[in-house]
Amino acid sequence: MHNPRDFKKLFKRLLLSPVAGMSWEDKLAFVRAYMRELESRKDPMEESAELEPAIEIVPFEAGRRPLDEALGPGLGASEHAGLVSTAAEGAPTDDLCLLYQVKDLYAYVAPFHRTFEVRMSVAFLPHVEGHGAPCPVPGLQGVVLEPRVVSAAAYPFPAIADASWSEFYKTVYAATLSPEGLLPRREGSAEGRGYDWSEVDASLRARTPDGADPFTFANLFHQKIRVTLALHTDGSKYVAEDTIEAEIYDTGRFGSLYARLLERLIPADTRLQADTLDIPDLHVGYHPWFPVLTIGTDKAMLYLHAIRQDLGEQRRNLPDPAWLLRVGLYLELLTCLGIFEAVRAEHPDLLSPAERQVFEKSPVFAKIRERIDVAAWRRVWATREIVPRTSDLLAAGPVSFANLLRKQKATLAFLHAHHEDLKHAIALAGPNVENAQETWHRVFRDAERAVLKNGLAAFPELGWLDKRTRDFAMWHQRGVFGSYALPESVTGAFGDQDGVFPSACRQYRQSMNEVARFARERGLMDHTGDECIPRTASLFEAYMRGDSSLVDALQRRDGYGGGLDAAEPLSLGPEPTHADIAALLRRVPVFKPLTDREVERLAQKTRPVVYGPHDRVVREGERGSSLFVLASGTVEVLVRQQSGQDVAVATLERGAVFGEVALLTGSERIATVRTTCESTLYEISKQALAPIIESRPQLVVELGLLIATRQLDREGRMRQSGTEGVASRIRKFLLG
């Protein structure tokens, strides 16, 4: 039997022994956490071998990606959307990456060396609750996962690296699911992706009369899946599990309904009108519906490209790609099916017989059917008549220049009906009060890019003008003549109008803002400021004001290089060094009690994030567990009044810190913080700070004192919690 002196020596020797991946502070934090665990047991002498292991999946959190776990521990999140393609081989797909932790495995790693496995199973979920049971995906049941983690070795691209179960207590593992495994094998192929369609549960096959895969029109071109990660020990003994739901979208079919309009309906109607008007070889570009469909389709392809970057490369063009996918999908269904029904009496059905069957009978389409406004689309269809040439003076090739006005009328009518559908699409997609504003900015700017890209193609009438006149027609701003600006009320009296680009930009922004107001009033969206999309979020407005720096910043925010016509993806630069981050953290008052070594450890776990103009970093009322240090740029602090108006109360510059109370206590954010320009911030998580607090518990009192002082200074009165109260909240939130 050992005496106390021997115990002390053995314990010290154990602490001083090198452990892969553990610093001295990590060891102290681990010992303190283990001692608290022992104290909480009914029998402190109970062996760890008797503790039941557990497994927990890290949920999705808007604005975060799995790669963030490698850049800043505790800041990563699982994905809840993925992409697959039923198109030709080589079409872009994306692995679904899920983060998870295994806990209390002390009895299954050294020195006990008992066996255990993490197994993954996947099931398709019914689109309508109560209409069918989950269908297991053949070949994706009980798949054994190796210990792997997300790595930043290939930054800015994510990478998956091998890991070890022995470091379970500090490791967030990564499970990847290739969406290819959700597709059946191609006909005649015995190898490759997926399974045989006949292996799928009969109920799913019965719900899919229009094809032999789970992503057809009958299934709304996507599938909801449930992924289960289960912990098994000693061969096959089930111990614990956790589940997460995700959405997988077929990019090969996304936009296919719009394509039917452009490839079948509009060409057919153009030929009919050409025969009636006796205009031989009339190009489809002269059809009044052509501009809005061409530009709208290209806009959808642009934001789908952003989604692919976010999911495949884990960039941050969109806070929540899945929400935009849902909205975009429902909008396509509502608009295209509404048009299909409106023109059905005049043109062959644009749905196949099997698609017609599920559209009219399937409960999957019930909520869509009840929201389709066929009468509205019939009114829009009435604006499609081409204006023929009546004189050489007003001739634009085979049509009259008045056809441009017809296109304008058709476009406005189309957008009105389309945005009524958009309101329904938002309701079907579900509320998003956290990040819809940032998503709206991106969709609006993609519309601007689509207008710029397709301007001449969508309006071939302009090609009959000389370059100077054409540029005027495309770029002229109402009331602006050269270097002179006159009141619009004056110039409007003699027919002065915005050109194609300014008109399209301003009308679309007005319409998008109206939809946002509608959704906000119903609790489906929220935004900061009087308008969801202010003028300063517009590429065209910045360009026409000559503000090239804002143009470049907005382009970079959306993942493009600088310049209005830049189409190449932005090349991400190197991350700031730990030394750079540590130097700034030392200037932050809330971290004054930390030693240089502790600041350096914190810097290693800090995540740098670049925000674009008008991005909200935190939102009033949400719960958070991160602190932000402003490394460059400026941000404004806004507080919402009872009237619903957001009032700016402060502007913060480099070196400012915010969110410290939420980081240390888990309380709600007391204000919204929004960037005013392109800004870089350093995010520090609860998980990054907790080990430092564990190794030096007296920091709780010092940090509590600093926070209480800052709160008193901020409020200007002695009504905030005292040091004792804040310290206890910090201790409870960080240490449990």
Automatic annotation (TrEMBL):
Q: In what residue span(s) does the Cyclic nucleotide-binding domain sit? A: 590-693
In terms of SMART domains, this protein maps to: cNMP (SM00100)
Residue ranges of coiled coil: none
Q: Write down the PANTHER family for this protein, in alphabetical order.
A: CRP FAMILY TRANSCRIPTIONAL REGULATORY PROTEIN, HTH-TYPE TRANSCRIPTIONAL REGULATOR ARCR
- Name of the molecule in the record: Cyclic nucleotide-binding domain-containing protein
Give the species this sequence originates from: Polyangium mundeleinium
